[in-house]
Design brief:
- 30% of the residues lie in helices and 28% in strands.
- The chain has a five-stranded mixed beta sheet, with helices on both faces. Strands 7, 9, 10, 12 and 21 form a five-stranded antiparallel beta sheet that branches. It has a five-stranded mixed beta sheet with strand order 16-15-14-19-20, sandwiched between helices.
- It is an alpha+beta fold and 453 residues long.
- The protein has eleven helices and 21 strands.
- The longest helix is centred in the C-terminal third of the chain and has 26 residues.
């Protein structure tokens, strides 16, 4: 089922799209081949390498992180048989701020169809009220909801007839230094950056079904160093957040309380259910490590892991969900990431949050190599879905124009709506009148992005 891309004889090599997921525990590279019959893509390989130089989702040692990225890229290239030069990068770490803003434009005194230029204008109007601190940058700007003549709930207004167009916009802001370190890492690894995506968004796209996304759901991705939260409703993300606590913290708790080596604590924490305590309170786990005999009470292990997860869900995750302001979440909570493999974690979450909960594999798991298609690969798989969704609808996720092959060199004087997006949008409305360069339309925006340095 997984063929090497170089296996085509006498044909042009197929175009690849590549996602790079920077995790605390591992670096993952997912490679997909564009489907020539439609606008989708088929995953053909997943490379990986142990992660070094990354802690709590943040790059703390650039050289080590670069080596890990190179190893993961090499693994992926060996799998697909083609060189990889450009990647879309998913990352977590750092404080995430979500800001909602609104904009409105008149379409004229007589109702007419909405054109791509009108959508650009209303996005510009909504952006005008967003104040970004000097040391932070907008990573994503996401249209949450459109309305036409006061009628809300419009998914895509392009081509629809009205006299007034309104938008509710969400700006996702992260520290500029975090972005720059990611760009530096990928550049030093010899790769071009095609785009950046925040890990909560890529995890959600990788784990959520379209039905769950429309109904309303929360995706919680518990990785090694961070926990990502994404609240979706009406098919769009309403809130994205990152908590700097993950599976490594559970291992540290187990090792510290039970006086165990960390590598062994990481191993034995997987041997308990957090939903129900052991039936035999005196049951132990016996093993030898570093020529020393250990005997760990299963009940003690259960309590340590359960207490950390309860703190994570009840004290930290719950406020993030509440911030989204979504009253109903019929699809409940979707758990993914490596820690979601913990036995009984869905039952624990059901009791704590009073919402249905399930553990999710990647939506595209059946298209991924065996052994590299489990919960911890949801974020990597979601990068491909992110790329495809952006291409299908250029206005769905607007990226900071710093995400280019030239890195941060192009930030100064640029607007949020990148030039390629305007060209794509313009094709949809060939009747629009353009004066000069379409990019000149947006020169009035006032410094939405601050210089990184």
């Amino acid at each position: 089922m997984f063929r090497k891309a170089s296996g085509y004889i006498g044909e042009k090599e197929p175009e690849l799209i590549v996602g790079l997921d920077l995790g605390t525990s591992k670096i993952t590279v997912v490679v997909a081949e564009r489907d020539l019959n439609d606008d989708g893509a088929q995953i053909i390989g997943v490379g990986q390498a142990p992660s070094s130089g990354i802690r709590k989702g943040m790059i703390v040692n650039l050289d080590q992180a670069v080596r890990s990225v190179r190893q993961a890229i090499s693994d992926a290239q060996n799998m697909v048989g083609q060189d990889i030069r450009e990647v879309t990068v998913s990352f977590g770490g750092g404080e995430v701020t979500n800001i909602r803003s609104r904009g409105m434009v008149s379409l004229g005194r007589v109702a007419r169809p909405v054109m791509s230029l009108d959508i650009e204008r209303v996005i510009e109007a909504a952006q005008a009220d967003v104040a970004v601190p000097a040391n932070q940058s907008i990573l994503h700007t996401i249209p949450v909801e459109y309305s036409l003549d006061g009628n809300v709930g419009i998914d895509d207004p392009l081509g629809m007839t009205a006299m007034r167009l309104d938008i509710q916009l969400q700006s996702v802001i992260v520290p500029s230094a975090t972005i720059q370190n990611v760009l530096n890492c990928v550049d030093k690894a010899g790769l071009d950056v095609a785009g950046l995506v925040l890990k909560p968004l890529s995890s959600a796209l990788g784990a959520l079904s379209p039905e769950e996304s429309l109904a309303g759901a929360v995706v919680i991705d518990i990785g090694g160093g961070t926990t990502s939260i994404a609240v979706f409703s009406d098919g769009r993300p309403k809130h994205l957040g990152i908590i700097p606590i993950g599976g490594d913290h559970i291992s540290n708790d187990v090792g510290s309380v039970l006086k165990l080596p960390l590598n062994k604590a990481e191993e034995i924490k997987k041997e308990v259910s957090v939903f129900a305590p052991p039936e035999d309170e005196d049951e132990t786990i016996d093993f030898v490590c570093n020529d020393r005999d250990y005997s760990v009470c299963k009940l003690d292990l259960h309590e340590i892991v359960k207490c950390r997860l309860e703190e994570l869900f009840d004290v930290l995750v719950r406020p993030e969900i509440k911030t989204a302001g979504i009253a109903l979440l019929p699809a409940g909570i979707i758990l993914t990431g490596g820690v979601s493999k913990t036995e009984g974690i869905d039952g624990l979450l059901l009791d704590l949050m009073d919402l249905p909960a399930r553990v999710s594999f990647p939506v595209d798991a059946n298209r991924m190599p065996p052994g590299r298609n489990t919960q911890e690969y949801s974020s990597a798989a979601g990068i491909i879905r992110y790329i495809i969704e952006k291409e299908r609808d250029p206005f769905r996720y607007l990226e900071n124009p710093m995400i280019t092959k030239n890195g941060s060199e192009n930030i100064k004087g640029r607007t949020l709506i990148p030039e390629p997006l305007i060209k794509i949008g313009s094709k949809k409305s060939s009747g629009e009148k353009k004066e000069g360069n379409s990019f000149d339309i947006f020169q009035g925006i006032k410094n939405l992005f601050k210089e990184l340095f």
